Amino acid sequence: MTITQDSVVTLHYTLRDDGGEVIDSSSPGSPLSYLHGRGNLIPGLERELQGKSAGDKLNVTVAPADGYGKYDETLVEQIPRRALKGISNIKVGMRLHAQTAHGPRTVTVTRIVGDMVTLDANHPLAGKSLSFEVEITAVREATEEERSHGHVHGPGGHHH
Ligand code: ZN
């Protein structure tokens, strides 16, 4: 069967950035399962999987707008270290929950100069072209329960 709305799709994937560096991948022996057409994957990847079937391999390049969004400079702010109360050992690369000008957000510490800390609330993959290598291993229809929950149950999916 081919991938249509509410198919349960099982696949292996490797994700690389525009420099060819591997950012993420499914682990060997434990592929990813997702419910198709519910926004569980980024739009640019989900669109390319539509109509494909088990055994298909594809390479998909996703532009930032169809991935994790464009990089937004206004989501970067500098705050004094003392504003990060209760967080010790602040280091570049740390991800933390912080109160920002745009409300509570998960932010990444990107720079520390003296007493000033730069926080970036963009998704770490915002602004990047993403290159997916995908191998579809199985396609099946979703169960009633999966449809009503909007996600996959069982191996590779969501567990209760
Ligand atoms: Zn569920």
Question: Please, could you describe this protein's structure?
Answer:
The protein has 160 residues and is mainly β. It folds into two domains: 7-68 and 126-149, Chitinase A, domain 3 (Roll); 73-120, Thrombin, subunit H. Helices cover 8% and strands 39% of the residues. It contains two helices and nine strands. The protein has helices at residues 43-49, 144-149; strands at 7-16, 22-25, 32-35, 57-62, 76-80, 95-100, 103-113, 116-120, 130-141. Strands 1, 2, 3, 4 and 9 form a five-stranded antiparallel β-sheet that branches. The protein has a four-stranded antiparallel β-sheet with strand order 5-8-7-6, with no helix packed on it. A hairpin with a 2-residue loop joins strand 6 (95-100) and strand 7. It is elongated and about 60 Å long. Bound molecules: zinc ion (ZN). The site of zinc ion has 5 residues, from loops.
Secondary structure layout:
Blueprint: E1 7-16, E2 22-25, E3 32-35, H1 43-49, E4 57-62, E5 76-80, E6 95-100, E7 103-113, E8 116-120, E9 130-141, H2 144-149
Antiparallel strand pairs: 1-2, 1-3, 1-9, 4-9, 5-8, 6-7, 7-8
Short description:
By secondary structure, the protein is mainly beta.
